[in-house]
Amino acid sequence: MIADDDEKWLADDIAAVKQNAFYMQRAIDSNNLKDALKFSAQMLSELRTSKLSPHKYYELYMRVFNELGTLEIFFKEETGRGCSIAELYELVQHAGNILPRLYLLCTIGSVYIKSKDVTTTDILKDLVEMCRAVQHPLRGLFLRSYLAQVTRDKLPSIGSELAGDGDAQMNALEFVLQNFTEMNKLWVRMQHQGSSREKEKREKERNELRDLVGKNLHVLSQLEGVDLGIYRDTVLPRILEQVVNCKDELAQCYLMDCIIQVFPDDFHLQTLDVLLGACPQLQPSVDIKTVLSGLMERLSNYAASSVEALPNFLQVEAFSKFNYAIGKVVEAQVDLPAAGSVTLYLFLLNFTLHVYSDRLDYVDQVLGSCVTQLAATGKLCDDKAAKQIVAFLSAPLEKYNNVVTILKLTNYPRVMEYLDHETNKAMTIIIVQSVLKNNTHIATADEVDALFELAKGLIKDFDGTIDNEIDEEDFQEEQNFVARLVHKLYSDDPEEMSKIIFTVRKHILTGGPKRLPLTIPPLVFSALKLIRRLRGGDENPFGDDASATPKRILQLLSETVEALSDVSAPDLALRLYLQCAQAANDCELETVTYEFFTKAYLLYEEEISDSKAQVTALRLIIGTLQRMRIFNVENRDILTHKATGYSARLLRKPDQCRAVYECAHLFWTDECEKLKDGERVVLCLKRAQRIADTVQKMTNASRGTSSTGSVALYVELLNKYLYFLEKGNTEVTGDTIKSLAELIRSETKKVESGAESFINSTLRYIEFQRQQDGGMSEKYEKIKMEWFE
């Protein structure tokens, strides 16, 4: 209903304006000055309405404004026809109502100034003083806006045709400042018009009119003669006085932003202490973050665009002033939430990173200031504040793209302490991803220690909590980041690399039973790479107290892998023991190698009970033991005997058979003549064949016929015999192979076997070798089988 009334009133007022404008134009066309003034005053009287909302009043004002342009041209033409401009100036003051009278005065006043018949100062002073007569907020605001508009091109401003002397410039400056002050007062008073229930609506309407006030500041920035000195001594103090004293949230926020945007960057830099000094005096409800961020962003862009400006930032101590001002704002606004204070320091940090990127002490000082503020808050439970902290910590990371640089900031980890568990982990992942993405070289134990202190959210349980409820896939991904991080750590100095490994171990072992199976393997393999670098050197090239010796590192690994046995990961521990045994063998450390095998055997006997896991573990043991060259006869016999014993005690007979024939490789090593025992090889193969016979009998007893499984075991054994025949084992005879082949042939006649493809491939291979030239064909000629007859 109110909106409909508004439209009706506006339509009526516009109709009246059009009607009076028509008669005014007709009077102008007939050069009738008296009627032109009469109808223009009646047209302007429509602006006296109090019924319209500010938005609708603005529409009416623009209609009148367009018509006044025609009237101004008419006044100029009248002066050209001999009419005295002074008399016109006096004549318009006879208008009956104050508002039309002042609009007409402003119109003729602009013509009077341009005629140069009187000093600009006198007219400006007269107009700005007489406009005080209208104190209605809305009508007064638009009247002064009109005054500013018609006199804008009459001031001695940059690019104006009316350049003046020093006094004229100062008087013009005073005119704009005075008009700005009065307009701001009227604008602020608008909030008190009407009932308190409509306050929100009035604030919205006021916000729509803010540019009317802000245009004055733009005019000030364009005035000729407003140099740094005048701006510092006159303009800025007068503006800030009005901003602070108006005590209005909307006005303060908008005008501070206007100051920042319209005046030159160098002015801001040279008057930074004055501008920042006003910030703590603003109303607590003012969004000071927006004000300060706008100022810092403006100055950051200024520094980036002009290399010559950088010394000025150091000269005026911009960082110190911003840091002090933000501290004062936080201190003054006691109700400022944690997210708000962190955001302020985030803006300061971004400013510092842009302008003082080489001053790590400044960056660390900002971090320290944030810590001081957070100390009163404790752990952040506010999601918004936590996100701001993540952005705060990410800023230097994105700027430097080097975690090593971040590690030099002593307050960086102190800020992270205020994050909750989940947010801390998220921030840690960002840090680790930065290392991986930028291929950051972390080469000292001290840096590694500092990095892992930062990454403790991923490495160990946080504040006694356990990640039982975390998604398993997410947990695996998190620990994968840790593993990749461990592999990135490297130093060319073996001694330093050894210290790195010891440091990583210290942190990794705090991870708890869920993490250790995922984090110990990369540590072990990183240490094994170091051992291989050291292999072939002196026993201790760094002195008796050095940590970078293969023996000492292997002892460390033995203790480390042992931790896996305590967290129910025996399969993984056994694999790592065997890897370490291989490294010890390469370093010719027999005692250490034997110790690793002993630990692996104990794990196999005491911890691995699943039959499939036993088969896999036993194959790993046999494969690793076969490559050992360091053992003396006694130690090798002990370990070999144990392995063959384990093979015979597997649960399933086929697994026994395969494990036993694989043990044959333990008695034959190509590279060492001392480790070639053909007789024991054949004994293992015959023992395996007996087990295969047992499998056949058991199958026949249960099914009444031969099985594919037993035939496949025979074929596998046949291939083992052929392998050792080719290797030159004289104990492997043609008769032995022939008898096994005949056994296979007879078994395949009893039942269709799925092993036929395997058999045919083996037979083709034998035939192929018999047809080769040289010693290999001679070996295969010993094999006489009916298949080839």
Task: Describe the fold and architecture.
This protein is mostly helical. It contains 39 helices and no strands. It has helices spanning 2-29, 33-45, 54-80, 85-91, 98-115, 120-130, 137-151, 166-189, 199-208, 210-222, 228-246, 249-262, 265-270, 272-278, 288-305, 310-315, 318-332, 338-355, 360-374, 383-400, 403-407, 412-416, 421-437, 445-454, 456-459, 472-488, 494-508, 516-534, 550-565, 570-586, 590-606, 611-626, 633-648, 653-663, 678-703, 708-726, 734-750, 756-770, 775-781. α38 packs across α39. The longest helix is centred in the first third of the chain and has 28 residues, at 2-29. Mean pLDDT is 87; it is low at 538-545.
Question: Can you give me a brief rundown of this structure?
Answer:
The protein is an all-alpha fold and 789 residues long. The protein has helices at residues 2-29, 33-45, 54-80, 85-91, 98-115, 120-130, 137-151, 166-189, 199-208, 210-222, 228-246, 249-262, 265-270, 272-278, 288-305, 310-315, 318-332, 338-355, 360-374, 383-400, 403-407, 412-416, 421-437, 445-454, 456-459, 472-488, 494-508, 516-534, 550-565, 570-586, 590-606, 611-626, 633-648, 653-663, 678-703, 708-726, 734-750, 756-770, 775-781. Keywords: Membrane, Protein transport, Transport.
Biggest sheet descriptor: none
Helix content: over 70%
How many H/I helices?
39
* Beta-strand content bin: under 5%
Low-confidence stretches: 538-545
Tell me the overall shape.
elongated
Number of strands: 0
Q: What is the alpha-carbon Rg in Å?
A: 47 Å
Question: What would you call the structural class?
Answer: mainly alpha
Q: Estimate the mean pLDDT confidence.
A: 87
Compute the separation of the termini in Å.
115 Å
